[in-house]
Amino acid sequence: MEDKDFLQFIASVKKMTGIDLALYKEAQMKRRLTSLRQKRGYNTFAQYFDAIAKDKELFYEFLDRMTINVSEFFRNPGRWEVLENKILPRLAKQSPRVKCWSAACSTGEEPYTLSLILLRQKMDATVLASDIDEGALAKAKQGVYTDRSLQDCPKDLVAKYFEKDTLSYRITDEVKRKVTFKKHNLLADSFDSQFDLIICRNVMIYFTEEAKHELYHKFSRALKPGGVLFVGSTEQIFQPQQYQLETEDTFFYRKMG
User: Fold this and answer.
1) pLDDT tens digit string along 175-190?
2) Which of 228, 202, 253 is nearest to 98 (CA)?
3) What is the largest distance, in Å, between two alpha-carbon atoms of the chain?
4) Domain extents for the chain?
5) Pairing of strands 223-231, 98-103
6) Whose CA is closest to 171, among 152, 182, 154, 158?
């Protein structure tokens, strides 16, 4: 009975939003959403769906829980050093204007990290940043962060590109100007093409193997030959050649051809 309730919830969410929860790892997703439903006092997923369909706050909370908006600037700093010192210089030689995409960008720390690096290197580039969660995108556009989000951000960049308030840091317009935010569902929407760099980190771990397989194909098709896919530290691609990719460095995959 409980499984039927959850499966009906998945079908209702897909019909209402286009988000297919069946493409996420079921046990993980079900556990997370069950605890949220119980916390809000609903005995069944049917009751919970009726509530989120009527209440925008509840709906955004559901989206937030589903997409795990946890991020920091320069997360895993060593990988960003490789991007800055090895990958981006090569891409700049290949394209006079580097076209970048931060996919599933959450609350903006990742695309703004990229923007900070591009400013430091004085590189001509565009950065598209996308996420399924409108609440996360709204926060990203505001560009206000806690000191915890900035713990790995180089101090000189914090001093130059952030304005400190009492309890938070506001990113400057110079950093924001490089980034365009857009709502996008990785699993359902079409991808743009001819990217030099796609960053998609710490998101694939929530998807089923089938969904991951399809996404790696789509990312590969969206890259220029020689373009790079940058993934998270738990998301190594074990047979990249099946997606026309080859390892350029740890967690960096270059499009072949």
Assistant:
1) 999 999 999 999 999 9
2) 228
3) 59
4) 4-66, 77-255
5) unpaired
6) 158
| Contact present, 111 and 129 (Cβ < 8 Å) | yes
Contact 183, 134 (CB under 8 A): yes
Token pair belonging to 159: 């001093």
**What are the tens digits of pLDDT across the range 85-127?**
999 999 999 999 999 999 999 899 999 999 999 999 999 999 9
| Superfamily of segment(s) 77-255 | Vaccinia Virus protein VP39 (3.40.50.150)
Q: Sheet harboring 98-103: ordered strands across?
A: 179-183, 125-131, 98-103, 195-200, 223-231, 252-255, 245-249
Sheet bearing 162-164, strands edge to edge: 144-145, 169-171, 162-164
> What pLDDT score does 62 carry?
86
pLDDT given at position 2: 65
